[in-house]
Structure formats: structure tokens, C-alpha cells
Amino acid sequence: MEGVRVDGVERVFRARGRRGVEVVALHGMDLRAAPGEIVAVVGASGCGKSTLLELVCGLQAPDAGTVAADPAVLMPQRDLLLPWASALDNAALALRVRGVPARRARVEAVPWFERFGLSGFEDARPAALSGGMRQRVAFVRTLLAGKPVLALDEPFAALDALTRQEMQGWLARVLAEEPRTVVLVTHDVEEAVVLADRVVVMSPRPGRAVAELEVGLARPRHRTDVAVVALRERALEALGAPA
Amino acid sequence: MTRFGRIGDPPATLSVPRPRRRGGRRRPSGLLGALGTAAILLALLGAWELYAQVGGVDPLILPAPHQVASSLWLDRSLLWDNLRVTAGEVLLGILVAGVAGFACAVALHVSLALRRSTYPLLVASQTIPIPLVAPLLVVWLGFGLGPKLVIIGLISFFPIVVTTLDALARVDPEQLKLLRTLDASRWRILRHVELPAALPGLFSGAKVAVAVAVIGAVFAEVFGGSSSGLGNLVQQAIPNLRTDRAYAAVLILSAFAIVLFGLLTLAERLLVPWAHESPNGRNR
Fold it and tell me: Is B174 in contact with A145 (Cβ distance < 8 A)?
């Protein structure tokens, strides 16, 4: 187990065409996540956060530097549930695509539905579920992949504010019971401070880590806790945002 | 409520399971639509009847609607027998085109090399003038069902391939990334995600194919030296100065196409109901 180690990574995209315009997404990016640690990465839009996650998941290779990580599974911003499949089959997809027979995959997914308050919705198709429930189904799918590292790409950004708060509290409880190495990419500084052990602040493009904040607060945390608010302000300051 | 209207829902309701909602779009009631169609048809028929009666047109060139109606009734058994022949050809042709088109679209989707090399040829296949090749096909395949299936299949194949291929290509790239981190093989991505996602495309293609397949059947019968079928009936009726019968046969062909289209729409609602829901991944 090595968690996640990203060292001095550079990633350059070349726009197609004869006069290739180069876009440096990441430059000298470092990131560490010890096994079982929850690391949040915050940064402005377009600072290469999603690229960083794809590197961690092995979906892209760096142009320079090294990426070493335990096997990681991606949880994107949108739930990407299959509209034709039931909630249970959507969660079980993680097993089905590895060749597990349908019946056994469902049997393995059912206990997660009970734990996550999804009982009774096994046969519902995604269109009949609320945004929060869909995201929980997507999270069951992510956990069933059985990977030690979870790469969460703004998992709650598509939800409304109220559901997002609910889901953040829910995720904190789940990760307490079911510890994984987590790289959580978000532009929501509050979310980062409430959920993570450590917050890494990225610069605008080309993205690199410019600040690192140890959170070190007891859980459960609330967004109104004085320490949470103070850390949030420090993170915002590091981001260069007006307080 | 329209799909867009849902954006304004109060957030407090969003964490509560939503009641099942059938179809997201507002549409006119079926009865109103049917009344509209009937009114337009009646107006057209009235104008046609008026023109035939007072316009001084030779009824051998343009029979009045009442003459066509009487042919529909008097020739009903003749029309029915020939409809069964043509309907059989069309159904079998669309079925063959559907299976071949779907398989071809999947092959083209999986292999970029195949897509690059074959797609232009597919487009070219649509420019083949049927009247020219039909007699050749008869020489090769005989007077039976063979040449007709080839012609109908050839015509119906193209829309099915194009729409199915489009549906395959529209699978969310994020979805494919996710599946790769789930260690899904190419085959399993195809089986669990891409093939089901392509089904609405297959239905869209088949619906377009219905109309062209009926035209194709008529061409096949007329230029393929057929001795039965509605196309053949039209061809026989005109030199026999039975223009009213020719019009009656065309009317039957149109009605058949409408029924087939309706059946496909119904099958689509039953088999891929999710294709008409609000898009996956949007939470509102």
C-alpha cells in the first residue's frame, strides 16, 4: 500500500491543428495521500484538478514527473447512472463489468443499499430517484469496484445546496466506517475543510500545489464551527480569493 | 410541467423520492391530434373532389375521391391479397435491414479503420439507381422474394446504420472513463453500456426506414418483374385504365406505412421508455 504519490508532474495539452497551441494544465504538481487519508484538492475552475484525478486513476500519463498510486476508481461529478438499468443493477455494474454473474453481483450490492438508506429502491430506475439518492447509488458503485483509492471529482457539485450539505455529512460518516484513501477534488472550500484530513490548494493554470493545510479537527465537523470557519478563511486566502 | 420548468422546484423537495413521471414533454392530447389530421384530410379530399368535378380533368388521369373510395370497396379482396404480399416483403426487408444495420453500426463503431474505409461506400450504396439494378438482381436471384429483399434491405439499411452509429457515438465520454477505472474490457463496455444505449438509435432508424422501405417495395415490384404486390397492382392498373384502383393501392400503401410507424413507436415506448426521459445525470 502506497496511497497516492504525485511528484513534479507536468501535463501539457496540444490543441489540434497545424499551429499547435499548447496548454499547460499542470506544472510541477505534487500530491501525497497516505493510505486511509482523505486529501481534498481545491482550486479555481480550469486549474487542472480533473486532469490530476485522471492521472491518479491512470487514465492519462504525465508528460514529466511521476505518478504512483494504488488502484483508483473515479467518481465523476455527474452520477452517470445508466437510465435503462435499475438502481441495484447500476450499483452492481462495477462487478458486472469485471465478469461477475448478474445474480451474484446483485447479492453483493444489496447490503450496501441497506446501509445507505436505499432499501426499497433497488428496482427503481434512476429517473425515479432524487439527486441525492442517485449520487448514493453512484457511490455504492464506486465502493463495489473494490479499489483502495477513491478519486472523487466534485461529487456533489451538481446537487442543490441543501442536498449537498446532507450528502457531505453522509459521506463523512461513510468514510469513517469504511476508510479509504480519498482524493477529493472540489472548488467548494467549505466542503474540503469539513471532509478532509488535509487540504491542498492549487494555483490557477498551470496548476500546482501552492498551499497545504492540515485540518486535524475532530469529527463530526460542522460548517459553523469556529475552527472550520477559520480554516476555510485560510484556504480562501491561499486561493487568492477576497475574503 | 415542462422539463425546463423543473429547475424552479423548491430545493427542499429534492431529497425526497420523486413520483414516477411518464414522458417529460408536453404534447397535445391524442384526440386533438387525430381531429386535426382528420380535418386536414377532409379539407384536402374536398378540394380534390371539387377539382375533379368542376375542373374538367379526365378521370383517367385524376379520379375523384369517391371513385377511389368505391374502388377501395369493390376491389377489397384484390387489394388485401396484394397488400399481404407487399407487407410481407416490407416487414422481412426491414427486419433484415435492422439486424444487418445494427451489426454493421456496431462493427463500424468498434473499428475506426473500418469506419474510415467503409462509411463512404455506405453513402455510395444509397445512390444506386434501383430501377437500373432491379432487372440485374432478377437475373441473379430469380423472380422470387430474393431481389425484393435486397432492394428493400439496401434502402432501409442506411438510415438504420446512421442513427445507430450516432447513438453509439453519443455515449458520454465521462461514462467511458468511469468504466475504464472499473476495469471494464472493451467487450464488456459494449455489452453493458454501448449496446443498450444504441437501441433508441435503432428505433429512430427503423422509423425512417418504414417510409423508404414501402417505396422500395414498390420499386422492387415494378422494376423487378413481379406478378403480385401493391406496386405490381399499380403498374397493371394504369394501362388497364383503372386509375382509381391505382390510387386505391397507393392509399393502402400509405395506410400500411402509418400503421407500421405507429407500431414501431409503440414498441419503442415499451422497450426503451428511458429514451424519452430527461437526460441522465442532470439532477433536476
Answer: no
